[in-house]
Structures are given as C-alpha cells and as structure tokens.
Amino acid sequence: MSALKPNTVPAAATSPAPEPTVRSSDFGERAGRLGLEIADIAGIVEDLTELNVDLRETLHDVVHSVDQSTETETLIAAAMGDLRVSADKTRSILAKSSEEVSDTLGTIIDSMQELGTGTIGMTQSIAEVRATISKVQEASASIQSISMETQIIAINAGVEAARAGEAGRGFAVISQSIKALANQVRKFSDENRSNLDTLQARLDQMLQVAQTNSAKAQAAIAASNDAKGATNQIQSLVASVQQLTSGIEDMSEPIHRSATTNKQVSEQVANLADVVETSDQQLKTAHKRSSNILTISEDLMLYLVETGFQTRDGALIAICQEAAAEVRDLFEAEIKAGNISQTALFDTNYRPVPGSNPEQVTSQFSDFTDRVLPKIQEAVLTRSDRIAFCAAIDRNGYLPTHNLKYSKPQGSDPVWNAANCRNRRVFSDRTGLGAGRNTRPFLLQTYRRNMGGGAFALMKDISAPITVMGRHWGGFRMGVMP
C-alpha cells in the first residue's frame, strides 16, 4: 500500500463522474481526531482495569467474609448443641434438687412448727410455775408472820411463868419449846423464801429465753414458708430451662441452613472472582493493545507533521519548540552567570512538603525555576486560545513551577488542591514521563487529563526536549485543547 504524499490527490478515474479528493489537512484532522478517540478508549480501558482490580479484591474479601461467617455459624451451631446438652443436664439437676429441697423444707417446717408449739407451751408452763411460786411465797410470808407472832407469845409466856415462880415452871418449859419451834419455823421459812427467790430468778431467765426462742421459732416458720416460695421459683426455673432447651433446638436448624447457604454463596462468589480474574487478564491485554494503538497513532501524527502534512497542531508544535529553546538558553545563561550550578539544576533528591495533599515536593532548583520560568510560561499561554497550560518538567515528570493559575496555595480539600495546586508535583504517568524523557524534536500525545474528583478532560500534549550543556534535563510541555 503506497503512502499518501502531502498536497496530493488520487488520480482521476476514466469514468465521467469525478472522484472526491482528500486534502492533506483533512487527513491530518482525521488522524488527530482518531488519536483523541483512541486516547479516550485507552483511558476507559485503564479505568475499567482499575475497577476490575477493585472488584476482584472486593470479591476476595467477600469470599473471605462469607467463609468466616460460615465457620462462625458452624462453631455457634456446635456451641448451641453443647448448650442444649448442658441445659438438659441443668434441668434434670434442678428438677431433682427442687424435689429434694421441697421434701427437706417440708420436714424442717413441720419440725419448726412443733418446736414453736413446744416453746410456746413451755413459756405458758413457766408462767404457771411462776404463779404457783408466787402463791408459795405468799404462804411462806404468812408462816413467817405466824412464827414471829408465836415467838412473841412464847416470850410473853416466859415472862408470865417467871412471875408465877415455882408454879409457872412447867409453863416456862412449854414456852421455851414453843420459842425454839418458832425459831426453827422462821429459819426454814427464810431458807424456803431464799430458795423460792432463786427459783423465780431462774424461771424468769428461762421465760426470757423461751420467749426469745419462741420469736425465733415464729421467724423460722415464716422463713420456711418463704422458702416454699423459693421452691416454687426453682420449679418455675426448671420450666424455663425446659423452654430454653426447646428454643435452642428451634434455633439450631436455621443456623445449620444458614451455614449451608453461606457455603454455597462462597462457592458462587469464588466462581465469580475467577471470572473477574479472567476478565482482569483480558482487560490488561486490551489496555496494553490500546496503549500500543495510541502510540502508533502518536507516531502517525509525528510522521504526518514531519512529512509536511498540514495539521491544526503544526503551529502549536512550533511554539512548544521555541519555548523549549528559550528555556534552554535561559538555564545555560544562569549557569554561566553563577546563579545556579549544574548539580543543583539536575537534582533529583525530591523532598516532600509536609502536610501537602496531593503530595508536593521540592528540589534544589524549585526556587530558581519559580524565579525565572513564569516570564516564559505566562507569555506562551497568551499565544493561542487552545493552550490550557504549559510548563517545564524534568526527566522524572517533576513539574517545579506551573502557570500562576495552577499554583494556588493548598487548602484542606484534596480535590480542590488537585485541580488548582499543580505546581511542585511529580506527574509520573505515561504522558508525563513521555514528555519528560522524549529526545525527538517533539512529541504529540493524546490523553485524558485528571482534573480531580473523578473528572477528566480529553487533551493533546505537545512537548519538546530541553537539553542543558549537552545533558537532557527534561522537556517543555503544553496541554492543548482538541
């Protein structure tokens, strides 16, 4: 197939009807649009590849989570089986304990009631004994009073017998005997009274103890009656445990079904993950081929321009090459003037700016380019309405000094920063590295520019190499609207 030549048209056929002609400018225009479409397709494939990777990772996470859930439910089912067995044992033990406690409490309550009744009866008996003692004490006091009166009579009799002389001697003997008897009666009466007082004191103590025991017996009887209620509660607990056992059995079946379902879901998701894995490989192949096609499209545009085909980007390519030469001359002049060293200008030890998001970095030449490049770059922006931005970048895609409108101080919003704070950033994507490392007279690329927040803009990227003192420093890059 023969190549088309600039400003030529196909030879006319012998038929009367003329054939349409193809102008070189039309061919270049169509090739340019083709490059944009291919760039868009390549970007979409790249996005799909990234989404597919995320989907694959998500599916693997889902499989892992479902497997963990299945394992957990299996453990729960096993634990519930053990719990049901334990509940059965508990119910059996509680039922037996309830019967034993009920029987024991019944015996205790009967004994307490008998003890209480006996204690109350003893209290009554002690009270009756105290009443009898009181009567005996009263009789003893009467006897003592009689004894004293008898002694008085005996004394009077003795006095009268002494007056009677010999005639009253027999009466005196009787008086002495009566007096001795009265003394004995009084002595016995005193002893009996003392013994009765001691007995009454002890009976009072016994009565107090009996009353206390009676109160305790009554309290024990009440507590025993309360214990009957506790026995009823234990019996209710037995019924509750029985219901719990039935509930556990009812719950076990759904858990077993859920574990089985989870296993099926895990297998299905694993199969889907395999499909996504295959799709991922296909997307990677598609991305590689679309990138190759994009490169071919860019080479075609380069060929068209170099062979003289008219394209709407030709003038912009010339502007880019002129700007690259101007930056080269400026850098070399500044080196010769001693304003910057070659070592500093070619520094690649980038230092992150603390707190920046997206990350910004600095190098030894960042302040230098901030001082000398704006004059060139801002002037280039005014040369065409199609130029969206222009900046010099080093071989690693590091852009130290951007246009003023893209060099705002960063704020707290990363999305806003990504769109408005593009200076001092490293653009190591395909387009950025291609522009920085290209050594051909120029490079025309098509790409989707990431504007932040998921927004993209189809762009053309024109770049020309910058060589300083014979060393390739980077390139001058222009973002051009289609």
Can you offer a commentary on this structure?
The protein contains 8 helices and 8 strands, in the order H-H-H-H-E-E-H-H-E-E-H-E-H-E-E-E. The strands form 3 sheets. Strands 3-8-7-6 form a 4-stranded antiparallel β-sheet. A two-stranded antiparallel sheet has the order 1-2. The chain has 482 residues and is an alpha+beta fold. The radius of gyration is 61 Å and the shape is elongated. The protein has helices spanning 24-164, 169-306, 314-336, 342-345, 366-372, 374-381, 414-420, 430-437, and strands at 351-352, 361-362, 387-394, 398-399, 425-426, 443-452, 455-468, 471-480. 70% of the residues lie in helices and 10% in strands. It has 2 domains: 72-262, Methyl-accepting chemotaxis protein (Helix Hairpins, Orthogonal Bundle); 312-480, Beta-Lactamase, CATH 3.30.450. It starts with 23 loop residues before the first helix and ends with a strand.
Total DSSP E strands: 8
How many individual domains? 2
Mean pLDDT score, rounded? 77
> Structural class per helix/strand content?
alpha+beta
Highest CATH level, the class of the largest domain: Mainly Alpha
Biggest pleated sheet:
4 strands, antiparallel
Low-confidence stretches: 1-15, 17-22
Quaternary structure type: single chain
Shape: elongated
Task: Tell me the distance between the termini.
Answer: 30 Å
| Helix run count | 8
Helix content: 55-70%
CATH superfamily of the largest domain: Methyl-accepting chemotaxis protein
Secondary-structure arrangement, i.e. CATH architecture of the largest domain: Orthogonal Bundle
Strand content: 5-15%
| Whole-angstrom Rg | 61 Å
Here the CATH topology of the largest domain equals Helix Hairpins
Q: How do the strands line up in the largest sheet?
A: 3-8-7-6
N-to-C SSE series?
A: HHHHEEHHEEHEHEEE
